[in-house]
Amino acid sequence: RIIKTAAEKGKRVIIATHLLESMVENPIPTRAEVTDVANAVYEEADCVMLSAETSVGKYPIKSVEMLDKICRRIERSGGIGWAAKRKPQGVRAKLSKSAVDLGDQIHADAIFVFTRRGIMASHVAACHPKIPPIFAFTNMTTVRRKLIMMRSCYPFRIDFSKDPEKTIQNAMKAVLSRKLLPEGATIVIVSDILTAGGAVDAIQVRPLELPKSS
Questions:
Q1: What pLDDT sits at residue 214?
Q2: How far apart are CA 14 and CA 46, in angstroms?
């Protein structure tokens, strides 16, 4: 009930402690523990957290590997979808939902979102995209750390330019240099763009590629 309510209100949820408690002493978890983790992932919690398993347990690495294995397997099956009932308030929140819906419908490879304080990234993450992961770009290290806690969000710290297009290019360079996506991948971008009247919020669909040198 807590996870459902939080999802509908766009709040972060962490499921913590006793997830794989038996692995403090044993190299494999119990069936009940695997089910607990699987349920947390299926219900689309933002984070699952170990405690004694990695702080004082005999098998800290195996515990992390097991948690990761369960999460990856259940995520392939899809989630419960409680976030679909969320009714975003405000223009930016509704813009974010439109970007997520578009990304799901066209099976985009990623959603790029640019955020100085983390608010826009939070709006996008609250919509729980089913297919594309979120690549969030900020120019502040403290914000990047906070973004790690958001579901399906991979945060980066990059330099922002006064020209939104240059900022987008910096983001593409960061992703391509780390080989996180192939060149030509389809991305949905939530960003501001320059117009005659200044910068305005917009959604773009573009291939992941850098300008060709002349």
A1: 46
A2: 6
On whether the CB atoms of residues 154 and 136 are closer than 8 A, the answer is yes
Instruction: Dump pLDDT digits (tens) for 158-167.
Output: 999 888 889 9
Distance between CA atoms of residues 33 and 52, nearest Å: 14
Nearest Cα to 119, choosing from 153, 141, 99, 147?
A: 147
∠ CA 37-38-43 to the nearest 5 degrees?
100
As given in the structure block, the two tokens for residue 171 are 């983001």
111 close to 134: Cβ distance less than 8 angstroms: yes
All residues at 6 or more sequence positions from 55 whose CB lies less than 8 Å from its CB, including other chains: none
Q: Are 105 and 124 in contact (CB under 8 A)?
A: no
List, for residues 58-81, the tens digit of each pLDDT value: 999 999 999 999 999 999 888 898
